Amino acid sequence: MYSATISDLLRLLVVPVLGWAAVRDVKTRRVPNETWLPLAALGLILLCWDAWAVWTETVWTLTVDGFDIALDTRFPRQTVDSFFVRTAFSVGFLVPFAYGFWWFGGFGGADAKALMTLALVFPIFPVFYGPGYTLPYLNETTLGVFSLTILSNTVLAGVIYPLALAGRNLLGGAISKMMFIGRPLPVADAPRRYGRLLERPDSYTRRGLDLDVLRMYLSWRGLDLDDLRANPERYRDPASLPEEPNDPGDGTIDDTSGSLALTDGGESDVDGDAAAEQDAADEWGADAFFADIGGPIYGTDAEELRNGLDVLTAQKRAWYTPGIPFIVPMFGGLLISLTVGDVLVWLLIQIGIGG
């Protein structure tokens, strides 16, 4: 017999949507806001449904073609207090936590919205019964807050990526202190990649030029990176800035061509009077670029733009990080949580902590 609460079955709608969002975030670094609104609405409806079931100890059973879809005895066993305490912790702690991490730059916008949504949809542990087994398999848990289990499994899943990246770099002979978070990149490919440079002209950094900003800058000037590499001294001079810059866009790679989408209109040198007014210290016109777009963006300011352009015009290869979105291990954490359970609590029990 297969059984589960109807509300838990409806919660599984989150799985394909989060998987789609993870794939889209990797490919485009953009997830539409509309992705999360239906899931948040679903979470609110299911919370009200479950709250009523807990309060009234109601049991529904539905049989379809021999499969039982039932509101099982989990709800009558669960006290009203435990349900509302766990729900309050999930929503009251993880939603502000996700927002705070986004505010301080620890999460991207899609990552924060995904975690907020999971906190709303999965405040308590779902239960799925099959013939001879129950999922999640591991029932050990400290708080019984399923969204917290998803977060802990997400962190554990995220550990796999730097280890795999370091192994790949080691096999390729690319050994550096950046090998756990990045990999070498042919600089000619930089406009066709998402991520962030890990190099400055004389050092490594975790907060180098964001490649979205590179695309915006090139589009703003109406140039290709090849133009800058062919004549860096010319384009380092702010007098070479176009008289009427292009729309920089938002740094997205053109999906149709796989390359940078430039607006029409090439470079147009300013006249002598305007050139005299340019700040000669504004190498690459970085200050003028950020003044035009309204200030630093994507964690990149004028200094980091200059450092990145110096690296990209002087070297053939540079270290960069593709910056895998947090939503990717979050999807893995959700799958692990729904099938295996709370891996962190299980590990702690195995080494004699907790239980």
TrEMBL record:
GO molecular function: aspartic-type endopeptidase activity
InterPro entries in the cross-refs: Preflagellin_Peptidase (IPR052218), Prepilin_IV_endopep_pep (IPR000045)
Name of the protein described by the UniProt record: Prepilin peptidase
Gene Ontology terms: cellular component: plasma membrane
Subcellular location, record wording: Cell membrane
Species whose genome carries this gene: Halapricum salinum
Pfam family, any one: Peptidase_A24
UniProt feature, compositional bias: Acidic residues: 266-277
TM spans (from-to): 83-102, 114-133, 145-171, 326-349
Residues of the Prepilin type IV endopeptidase peptidase domain: 13-161
Listed Gene3D superfamilies: 1.20.120.1220, 6.10.250.3240
UniProt entry keywords in alphabetical sequence: Cell membrane, Membrane, Transmembrane, Transmembrane helix
